[in-house]
Amino acid sequence: MGVRLMVVDDHRLHAEALASALKLRGHRVLAAAAPAAGAAELVISRAPEVCLLGTAAPAEPGVFDPVVKVKRERPQVAVVVLGPVPSPRGIAAAFAAGASGYVRHDERIEGVERAIMKARAGEAAVAPLLLQGAFSELLNPVAQPDDEAQRLLQMLTPREVEVLVRVAEGEDTRFIAAGMGIAPSTARTHVQRVLMKLGVGSRLEAAALAARTGLLERAGAVGRGEK
Fold first, then answer.
1. CA-closest candidate to residue 74, choices 103, 101, 102, 51
2. Which stretch of DSSP H or E encloses residue 32?
3. Residue pLDDT, tens place only, 126-161
4. DSSP assignment of 78-115, as one string?
5. Does pTM surpass 0.70?
6. What's the rounded Cα separation, in Å, for the pair 67 and 203?
7. Residues 98, 117: contact at Cβ < 8 Å?
């Protein structure tokens, strides 16, 4: 028996193609839309059995707010998210918002249809391989910088790191130039680039930011050639 459903995706061609394929398989598609906003209101007004909701960035804050709103206003509507290969955070965020399933954008139509049927039946609709990949990433996370100091430090070149250390130590442009063996105008340019990259307006702010985030210690270590 066909399912009354909606396809909502920011990419209209993708939404219409998927809707056409599902119609050919006997499902009743109430709408295939690509709203930049108002997705939740559209789903609430049509009240399908299942909504396929596309997203390009499942880990972005607020991306699943429409799911929350739909489930609050129409709890009987099962929402299946269509998205890229997700991180564990993306899958968790989708289900935390109230989604019934998660399907990759490149899934075959048979896989999408299976997810629709499971969602309508009240089951979790997530491909085993997708869950396996998510658990694998959770158990064997890729080491990534996870602090503000490291993030800021990666914006700077080695020479700019040295400039930052000297700025934090209170050296003016003349001393920075002499210590680095460069012209004062070049030293001034380096200082301005450091301020711009750190998003601050003065040397004092740069020094305060470096001290507050631990960037000063990291920068000092890099400047001394330490690991």
1. 51
2. strand 28-33
3. 876 666 666 565 555 554 444 677 777 788 888 888
4. EEEEEESSPPHHHHHHHHHHT-SEEEETT--HHHHHHH
5. no
6. 46
7. no
